[in-house]
Amino acid sequence: MDNPLYSVAQIRAIEQAAQSQLRPLGTSGPSPLMRRAGEAASTYALEVLGGLPTGRILVLAGPGNNGGDALEVAANLANLGANVDVVHLAGTAPSPETGHALARAQASRARFVSDVADCNGCCLVVDGLFGIGLARPLAGQARALVEWTHGMACPVLALDVPSGLDADTGSVVGPDGVAVRATHTITFLGDKPGLHTGDGCDHAGRVHVNRLGAHGLHTEAAHARLNAPALFAGCLAPRRNNSHKGTYGDVAVLGGARGMAGAGILAARAALYAGAGRVFVAAVDPGPGLDPLQPEIMFRDAAGFAFDGRTVVAGPGMGDSAGATHLLSKVIDGTGPLVVDADALNLCAASPDLAARLAAHGGEVVITPHPLEAARLLGVTAAVVQADRLENARELAERLDAVVVLKGAGSVIARPDGEVALNATGNPGLATGGTGDVLAGLVGTLLGQGWPAWEAALAATWLHGAAADRLVAGGAGPIGLTAGELPRAIRAELNALVADAALA
């Protein structure tokens, strides 16, 4: 199933086309689009509440069209018999649609109040203060209202986008900005990337999309989408009986500097559990000769190891020694599939020559930076990367001619042509040391089994998060979840996907 994500500019174009399509022929009055948004949000609000409530519903309505949507909700719910309070921040020149919605709300049973102090004991807060057009941080009464919602124990339903959140980037608008922390968001006409990455993961809650009947108007292709198994389903094939370990590739993890052997082992275990035929740890420094939990993993001295013909995962625990740099240079100049992570990314960031050679690598390349590693590669700060995760991932993919997995809340998978996918699996349990090594090993094993780089990155990111979700559902976390628990859960998720694909 395709889950496209549209930029604000694209949504504006869709909205304009919908206004023309839905306005009655030969009329010049307001289009029914806002009315439809109000009806959709009212219906969803009752779903969230499980029916018409006996408690009070507080509607926060701003001065623009997002406020008009909220006023339509207030009128609809009040006319159904709900107890509705409205705090309205009036504007100077409302649109005809917003003016009509205000008149409807004023004619209903809804009670207009000047301050939330009069609204104790709410069972639902509807946020319609500001939508996708917000360009500056919230201030004054709007900011006070948003901060007040942070203390509410009841559900908070945001209309289109939580007020204060950038719908394109997922960042809270402005320095020292604030945004509504919704439990639910109903977003109109099309889904938005900012609801699924960065701050959006903490502010949007459960996202529900309603196109308001504007079907057939999404003519401009979306260049972002939500990651899902449908995007890599073509690679999910059952294993043939007539196969052997050579069928499923060799993965070599280049890492394991002194004191950091565990990183290479975690990557190797992920590669093993996700189906690599053979797995090696090519250690930069002498270390353990055996993984007692997984003796199938073979340990070699990286200096004399033959990397050619194998998929290489470079970086987990590799360090920054001259020897590590030489070995990284060697695999970059090779031609096989290559995953670059952790210390290997930092070495490339510190060496324009290495970075240029990486961009010219003769095989498939996937890099898996966290925001600080991405910032070093781009020559900016981590804050700059986080302020627009999609565009920075795109920039990095284009510069290095590689598929990029920018890790974090709502990981961004980007390829050099600008296409991106946002990953919705995973949870805060992944915020612990070693989970990135597991992801790198997982990408490597899929590449080693012949997956294209784009599909390998999509699948690995999805499986990595889904495994963490599986563990949390089983009681292992999110607090205290460890990277070492992930490989077995990844194996279970991968086999379930393959089984489902075989039945499709």
TrEMBL record:
Q: Which reaction does it catalyse?
A: (6S)-NADHX + ADP = AMP + phosphate + NADH + H(+); (6S)-NADPHX + ADP = AMP + phosphate + NADPH + H(+); (6R)-NADHX = (6S)-NADHX; (6R)-NADPHX = (6S)-NADPHX
**Which residues are (6S)-NADPHX-binding?**
65-69, 131-137, 160, 263, 317, 370, 437
Required co-factor(s) are:
K(+); Mg(2+)
BP GO terms, sorted = metabolite repair; nicotinamide nucleotide metabolic process
What note does UniProt attach to the cofactor annotation? Binds 1 potassium ion per subunit.
Supply the alphabetized keyword list.
Answer: ATP-binding, Isomerase, Lyase, Metal-binding, Multifunctional enzyme, NAD, NADP, Nucleotide-binding, Potassium
* Residues annotated as domain YjeF N-terminal: 11-220
The record's comment on protein family reads: In the N-terminal section; belongs to the NnrE/AIBP family.
Q: What is the official name of this protein in its record? A: Bifunctional NAD(P)H-hydrate repair enzyme
Which source organism?
Massilia cellulosiltytica
Instruction: Report the gene name.
Output: nnrD
